[in-house]
Amino acid sequence: MYADTEHLGPLQRGVPLAGTMLQYNPFLDQHKYNNYDFKPKGLCCRSKHCDLFYQVRPIPSCYWRSLFAPAGSFGDPHIRTLDGKLYTFNGHGEYTMIRINTSSVSFELQARTELVSTQNGVTTNATAFSAFAAKDHTGSSIQIEMSQDKKSLTISANGKDLTKQFENANYTVLTSNISIRWDNGKISALFLKPLITIKVSLGMRLLVCETLVNKKFKGLTSGLMGNFDDIDTNDFMLPNGTELDANSTRTEREIFYNFGQQWSVDEQSIFQYDDGMTFKDFSHPEFVPLFSDEVGEDRLNDAKAKCGSNPSPSCVSDYLATGDITLASASGKTEETSKMNVKVLENETPQISGNVTINAEVNKTVELKFNITDDGKSQPKFIILKRPTNFSFNNQTGIARWTPKNDISAEISLLAEDDMGVQSPAFQVSINLCSGCSGHGRCDYDDVLPTENAGSYKAACDCDLGYFGNDCEKETDACQESPCSLNRTCIDLSPKEEILLGRGYNCSACPHGYDEIDSSCIDIDECESVELNNCNASTETCENTEGGYICNCRSGYKKVDGHCTDIDECLTGTSKCEQICHNLPGSFTCDCFMGFTLSADRHSCDKSGSILKFCLYHYTIFYFFTGEKCELILLFSPLSLSVAPTDKSVMYVK
User: Fold this and answer.
1) CB-based contact 522:497 (threshold 8 Å)
2) Any idea what DSSP says for residue 255?
3) Fewer Cβ atoms within 10 A, N terminus or C terminus of the chain?
4) What percent of the chain lies above the pLDDT cut of 90?
């Protein structure tokens, strides 16, 4: 953690370090900020969804030039206006430095001066700032005074004395309208509604004040710090709006009487006074200071000599007024610091452009190109913040080359710094790094996964046929899922064979009864052709089965020792013929005696004539039952009879 704002490092503009739009103020509403801003970002980024969070909460844009204009007051009062004009005003009293009054905003900064004392305690005919007070339209206020011993500050905020509290360098006042804290040895008060900052510090027995005013107030300010319109020749404007021309403000005396004294504070003072005191107790209109532009040549040259080889106007003026070289030198240094601060604020931050995203592959060189744009006369320099191994960079051309040797997560970030030490935001390169897919695939830079490092991603591999794995490092076993039917043997093919044949495996030959069609075993229907089966068409039918066939006996036949033989229905008694049964191959027919006819059911007989029932036969002599007794009817050859042995009957044939 850095101790102050002077050592914060470069501004981070890359995910996940970049700041985002916030829903709640982290200083004024910490509980809601924690629940609705801080925690959601942490959850998203820890689950590797930072990019989604930043889509909803985008990174705010940056201003390459400051939105604020500086003004300052220091020494035996020297004032630098918001338009950059530096002049000396040695008034003794309380004065309006800045006044802003619009329909929605008001702000006033006032200053108090007192006579300067030397190191030996001798009072001089010069003045210096000893107190500042500021207040805006919300009622927020601050008052900073130099202590009587000129060694410390007395601080009040919003009407409350906080001197004791500010002895702690970490003490802060923070409301929705004002923020007050120590900033690098200065009391810094930021008025949050008008966005105006004043910084007051203790100098050499005097106070120094720096002011930053939002540029939206251009043309809306008045007071000793000018009217703020980017023109320094018209900064001497009176409270009634009258602009003083150059003829009225050529000398320090004319500035003192015609301009400075006109801004003396009256009943509109915003200072808090001890009991019984008013602004009148600090007003000294009768005071006449030493005007440094009226001294003799010898005295002027002596002052210049005391201030060094390149004397600043502030040092010379303060030495002439006080005779105190320590105080004068301090004023000279403050002047130079003030000039530098103005340059820094007016200086454009350098900007880097170049490869925002790169696609890199192990053992292949990738080239990056970066450019710097800046308003300075000298070319800014690159500063590499993070670099991977095997990374080279040419600061003159801005060209970098990198040959990754492995797919370990890497980071590349850099910034630009101009001749004033102003740095650009950190420029982070988003890296999509591919392993090379073991030479068995292609890098898919459209399919990437985040790694443990911000801005570093691992590209997926689109593996060639026959390979799989994150880096295509494994050969595919096409037989793993037993693709061959009918328990055939599966033979896994090499990747080269897979590419050639368009498949990952071979199967052994199809079993008997199957044909191989398009690498599949298709059952042969042996019943479609008599040549494919050995079924006896007269006694058997063919039934196709998976991989074979079955010969089934036709109706009227049965299997006997694997062959279909005729069933003698007449002999087995299964014919159900009432009188006469005739066996046929695979079938039978029924018939009737003389005098009977076969009925419609083809089994029973209906009476239609004389029937002789067989009683008895002996050789060629037949006896027939004629009704009541057996009588010999005739003698004839048995070949003339059709015999049904079961019912012992015969039919007479003429």
Assistant:
1) no
2) I
3) N
4) 50
